[in-house]
Specification:
The protein has a domain of about 100 residues. About 0% of the residues lie in helices and about 35% in strands. It is built from no helices and nine strands. The chain has a four-stranded antiparallel sheet with strand order 6-7-9-8, with no helix packed on it. A three-stranded antiparallel sheet has the order 1-3-2, with no helix packed on it. The N and C termini lie far apart (about 55 Å). The mean pLDDT is about 80.
């Protein structure tokens, strides 16, 4: 039997990073599971960020929190963190709050309010790898991206 890991976290309201200390962000939902199968998310928690590389497929292999995790952009400030694995890829509809894109992609709002899709991440530096594949545009760094990381962006 594996012993459970106990840690204390600061409570926060989803999206309110002002409640979190340095090096943390309000990105993890605290889930309560009931015997009847119902689940509730009564609050959110501040957790460590900027502790992984979104281009390294092994960046979160030692993360002790279930379910399996992969490194992704975690919030609109460009923080990265180990988050649950996702299968959403390029062009798939996503949600900035819950249905996040797979590692190597990020969820971006469309011009139409309420719609978002997955966009490929790239190294935003000269000759940076990974770059943008043919047909996916140029690598552009936005303020919502971590330093040195951009998004493959096709002009419209």
């Amino acid at each position: 039997m594996t012993p459970s890991i106990r840690r204390c976290f600061q409570q926060c309201c989803a999206g309110d990073w002002s409640a979190c200390g340095p090096g943390e962000s309000c990105i993890r939902q605290f889930e309560v599971a009931f015997p009847n199968g119902n689940r509730e998310h009564p609050l959110d928690l501040c957790v460590p960020v900027n502790n992984c590389d979104p281009f390294d497929p092994n960046a979160c292999k030692d993360d002790p929190d279930p379910p399996a995790r992969e490194c992704k952009i975690a919030d609109p400030t460009g923080a990265v963190a180990c988050m649950p694995v996702s299968s959403l890829k390029l062009g798939d509809e996503c949600s900035l709050a819950s249905a996040r894109c797979a590692q190597g992609f990020t969820c971006v709002d469309d011009p139409v309010p309420g719609h978002a899709h997955c966009r490929r991440l790239c190294r935003a530096e000269v000759c940076g790898q990974p770059g943008c594949p043919s047909g996916e545009g140029d690598c552009v760094h936005f303020l919502r991206d971590p330093v040195g990381i951009g998004e493959c962006t096709v002009e419209q």
